[in-house]
Design a protein that fits this description.
The protein is an alpha/beta fold. It is 34% helix and 26% strand. It is built from four helices and five strands; from the N terminus they run βαβαβαββα. It has a five-stranded mixed sheet with strand order 1-3-2-4-5. The longest helix is centred in the middle third of the chain and has 16 residues. The chain starts with a strand and ends with a helix. 30% of the residues are buried. The mean pLDDT is 97.
Length: 102
């Protein structure tokens, strides 16, 4: 499944109202660690059709980043039933990201 671009316009529909777990990557283009984790997030999106994977650019969507308390990036959050279920900050190995989904 393709990675979704998450914005304030589609956040409610894609993340909060989704019946699948949603992995959200809070990132920015200037962030080196974000660029390190991005291929892993893309790979998870390709491998798993039981979840939704999205990326939220914190520079473009600062309101949402503030609303969810994102202080450092990359921050990965897993939403289930409209609630934050799990999160991690910084470069995270693939197996740890997958464990967040369980």
């Amino acid at each position: 499944m393709a990675v979704e671009t998450i914005t304030k316009e589609n956040f409610e529909e894609l993340v909060l109202k989704n019946d699948k777990p949603v992995l959200v990557d809070f990132w920015a283009s200037w962030c080196g660690p974000c660029r390190m984790v991005s291929p892993t997030v893309d790979q998870i999106a390709e491998e798993r059709d039981d979840i939704v994977v999205g990326k939220l650019n914190v520079d473009d969507q600062a309101e949402l980043a503030i609303q969810y308390g994102v202080m450092s990036i990359p921050t990965l959050m897993v939403f289930k039933n409209g609630e934050v279920h799990n999160k991690t900050v910084g470069v995270t190995p693939k197996d740890e990201i997958l464990a967040l989904l369980d």
